[in-house]
Amino acid sequence: MATRIYIASDLHAAEKAWRKFINAIKAGVYRADVALLAGDLTGKAIVPILERGGGHEAEVLGVHRRARDAAELAQLQRDIADLGYYSFLTTDAEADRLSRDERDRDELLERLMTERVHEWMALATERLAEVATPLYLIPGNDDEFSIDAALNDPRYAPINGDGQVLDIPGGLQLLSSGWSNHTPWATPREETEEQLFERLDALAQQVRDPRRAIFMIHVPPHDSGLDEAPLLDENLRPTISAGDVLRGPVGSTAVRRIIEKYQPVLSVHGHIHESGGERRIGDTLSINPGSEANHGILRGYLVDIGTRGVELAQRVEG
Q1: How much is the pLDDT for 231?
Q2: Is residue 236 over pLDDT 80?
Q3: pLDDT score recorded for residue 243
Q4: In terms of C-beta density within 10 A (0-12 exposed, 13-18 middle, 19 or more buried), how is residue 191 classed?
Q5: Looking at the domain 3-42+130-317, which fold is it?
């Protein structure tokens, strides 16, 4: 009997997408035996909610929002969280100070990131308490190391597989890594291609049988069709030619080398939101579910793995 894997990635602090993911596992919507989340759990922006005139106000995606009472304030906070942003209640004076104090602003963002990851892990633990489907996840290159304590907290049910090879249901093994090759944004978990290859190769040597293994590596393989993104100029702006945005492969050569060398039955990736899909690299099926989590859309993949390999690969959306 095949083992069904439910895969998502790159939720980037989007509250609605996280709840959809957890509820789909709890309800058995896809009858999955294993759930995987391939990295990038946190967001990147803070929205101050200002205390004004007996109410609260905020600018959300260029729209001025006002909350006149506690119920409207709670709705405003939910709407901001669903977008993958972090909100905090403050005054005009304090918001102005933080806008000019990069260190304090970064410390606040890191604290809000960590708090939400704890909240997510606690919610998953509660919702999945009576569910037989285990959830394995990893941080991604965008995620600060400060969230690792929450991911590794033994009180929580989700299992942080980062840097490990774990036995999972179906007689399979899961190799996991949230690191990437270098990006233009100098994110926390990135390194040279050679360093990344050495990291992944050391893990792959622990795998008993690659044809019964899933490699969950946040960054997709280079030039695979799962890593197409806008090409940026020296100012980190998209390159335009004849009115069109130029796109090209930005994935990792190290990841491609690892897949070509070991040929796992399945490789799972994320990182490049707009390059969802599936490709073959030799005998390996490589998956990037893609992401529109910040629009409230949960993109995912179902993959059935039987004794002869992958029997089904299907995109799903919620």
Answers
A1: 81
A2: no
A3: 64
A4: middle
A5: Purple Acid Phosphatase; chain A, domain 2 (3.60.21)
